[in-house]
Structure formats: C-alpha cells, structure tokens
Amino acid sequence: MRSGSNLERVLESGRFAVTAEIGPPRSASSEAVRRKARLLKGSADAFNLTDNQTAIVRLSSMASSVACLQEGVEPVMQMTCRDRNRIAMQADLLGACSLGIRNVLCISGDHQTFGNQKEAKNVWDIDPIQQLMVFRQMRDLGQTWGGDGLEERPQVLLGAAANPFADPFELRVVRLAKKVNAGADFIQTQAIFDLDRFERFMGMVRERGLDRRTHIIAGVIPLRSANAARYMKAKVAGMRVPDEIVDRMSRATDPKKEGARICVETIDRLRAMEGVHGVHIMAIGWEEIVPEIVRECGLDHRP
Amino acid sequence: MIIAERKDLKQITEMLEGRKRVLVAGCRSCVSICHAGGEKEVAIMAEALRLKAEREGREMEVSEVAVERQCEKEWVRGIERQVAAGDIVLSMACVEKCGGCGDCVLHLTGGVCPIARCAKSLLNGPCGGSQDGRCEVDRETPCGWEQIYQSLGRLGRLDLLEVNIPPRSWLPSRSGGPRRTVRPSVAKGAEERAAEVRR
Ligand code: SF4
Ligand code: SF4
Q: Would the ipTM clear 0.90, i.e. be above it?
C-alpha cells in the first residue's frame, strides 16, 4: 500500500470505484463543505476538493480536505501548478500528509484569465508531470527534489487528470502515458458526453497497456438544463457535448430528471468498457443529485 | 534585449549526434552584444566542433554564417541556400519568439518555444484546454503545443513527445537576479573602465 487510503484499497481490490467532487465555498468557514460531506457520505469512496477552480478564490483545498476528514469522509486534495512553485508544493504535500490527507491530484490548473483576478502573476514553475515526478521521489525515495532526506515519507496516492476531448487527439494518450511514467497511480478524466470518442481513446489506452499500470476513473457531469449543455458545448475549452445530448435536454419536460438519466446511462456504458476502473461525478453546485445517481446505477453500498 | 549564454560543448555535441553537415548560425544583435552568439563566437564554435570531430575521427563539415537578426524572417531568408545545404543548423541566437528563459529547449520542441508560445509554459505537452489548435485562454491564439506537435510531425520526431522532461532550472531566467558578468575574459577590467572615465 502506497498510501493506505480508502480509494487505494477500493481500486486495488478491483471494485468499481466512485469519486465525487465537492466545490469549496467563498468563505472563511468550512461549514458548506461539511454539509456536503454529510450529504454525500456513503455515496462515494473519496471526494475531490477543488483548488481555486477557474482561478476564483475559495476556501483552500487543504482546509476543505481537513473538514472532510473531520466529517469522516475521505478527501482527494487537488493541487494546481498555477499558484505554487515547487517549494510550496512540496511543503504543502508534507503538510497535507501530516493532517491525514492520503490522496492528491496533480493538475496544471485553469489559466488565471478565467477568473476575476486576471492581472495575477501565474507560477507554472513545474507542470503536472514534473509535479508527479517530484512527489513520487518524496514518497518512494524519501527525498525532497533538492535531495534532502525526509524524516517521514509522505504516504500518498498520486492522481492526475486526462482530457480525451482536447486536441491533438493522438497526443492525449501520449500525455496519459507520460503521467503514468511520472507516477500517476490513478487518473480522473474530463467529463464524458461523447462516448464514441472516449471509446476510441480507451482503445489506445489498452493498446499501450496503460489501463494495467494505472486506474482510470472516468468523469461525468449530470446536466441540469439544456442551457448548461449548450454552454459547455460552446464555451468550455476542452469539452465536447454531442448535439444529440443537447437535443435530448432541450426536448425534456423535466430537464433535471433527463440530465440525471443521461448521467446514469453514461455510467452504465462506462462500466462496461474494459480498462475503466471507476467513475468520477462532478455535480458542481448540484451535489444532492449524487446519491440518487449512485443508487440508480446500483453503485451504493460503498465499502 | 535578450541576454544569452552559450550551452556547454558536451550538450551541443549531443544535440548534433549523427549529423555530418552543420551550419553554425550567429546573429549580430542581442547575442552579439552579450558575447554569446555573434560572428566571433560562431567562429570559435565552428572551430571547436571541427577539432572535436577530428579528434574523435568523425566526419563533419562545419560552415559558418551570421545574420543581422535571426528573429526576423526577412533576414533569415537571405541564408536559405546555406541552410538547405546542411543537415542541421546550430543556431547561436533566438530563431523563435523567445521568452528569455536561459535554458533553451528548442531542440526538443521542433524549434517552437513552449515558454513563449504556451500560456502556461508547459514543458511536457498540451494542457486539457487545447482545442481545434487554439489555446484555452483565447480562441484567437494558437496553442503553442499544437504548433510543436505539427512541427515535430513534419520533422519526423514525434518520439520526442514521449519523453518526460524533468523540472527545469529557472536560474538563468529573469528570476536569477540582476545582470552579471559570466565571461570575465571579455569584460573590461577596473583599470580600463577608470581610464575611460578619466578621458
Ligand atoms: S526555450 Fe524559448 S524562451 Fe527559452 S531560450 Fe529557447 S526560445 Fe528562448
Ligand atoms: S491550450 Fe496550449 S498554449 Fe494554451 S495553455 Fe494549454 S497547452 Fe499551453
């Protein structure tokens, strides 16, 4: 066991894993995170706490992760390369582990111009692949990147993101391979609406044998309205929503119900794909739907 | 102005491995002023390569050229014939839009700069926001990594994209601090400078 985390146990056991996202509030209180944690307890094996997503200041992912721990649910702390240099990252990894956090997701982070403090200076001292290399060295060799020995090694499961819907398509599996080589124990993907393209991506993943070297957790987003679908299709870089989904949402008399149904159908298809080891549900601002979706899929009764 | 420092010879010879006709190309602007890639440095480099090849019994034909400004296409066009005659160009200047990072990786990225052309200065490939050749930051801006991919594809070197590039040194970049002398041999001594003031 690398981390002893619950997520690692589930993944290693070969059970289909469920993770879900919790968005931290714009607040100095962690109450909102705690409320969501209580609501979602038992619906997933671990919960991702986002790190100033879309470059908007929020309660930090580390503090939010600790709030989850205190509520008895397991966090996946996200850490972007946008806001910290390698020194801060290593210190934060040690800090997180000292507080009981056992899963960390390494990501590049949205560019600061997405947020409302566009004039901020970004960091990107290292990229997510290099971040994985640094963290793996700390965990497996017990050394900082500078070479100092650590009295206690960080016990952590390392995750990374993959986006099969960005371009160039052929490079997406190359990027994934690089992340696996750099030390990614698990991968969470961008939200999947275009199942055909994802199927093609998984074919390339299996061809390289990557599904046997890491755990691929497929991302989904339950849609709340036709407008949400249209917005994602047109405005979110690196996202693909087929017309068929937009049409279904537009025609629905109860869009929320339809959105949840599409999500359940998507998860069913993902479970049938060879090499997919779990699902990651990102119901941003609509967390209360997660238990229902998990139940509908017959994925409740988490260990 | 760009401030440059030459890479060490060992690294340069590694980059030239297997090549037989090398064109060493200098530039009479920034890199000439900081004594890293002007005509004089080109001559020294070319000679060093010839000597090394000779000593190691390798066949290598080295020619030299310097242009006014390598960062402008108009000037580079003037040496097209020489470029075509060689099988590799060793540029001692910045042929690309350069972010002045001080530790050039253009030999790994098909001559397209990831520092200046990628909004996140990523070194290991495109982020998840790259779509239809455009950058996530602005749909008008080309994604630097898409350009690198295209360029490496043309060069038949897509294999370079499979290799993990470890954390790099930013020491020679802007954050390295104020300017300092790295080649004392070409700097004026204290006496010389004092004499200048007296004049
Ligand atoms: S990698 Fe880019 S920024 Fe760095 S020296 Fe080369 S061209 Fe300039
Ligand atoms: S879209 Fe391309 S250029 Fe823009 S940040 Fe991502 S990799 Fe860099």
A: yes
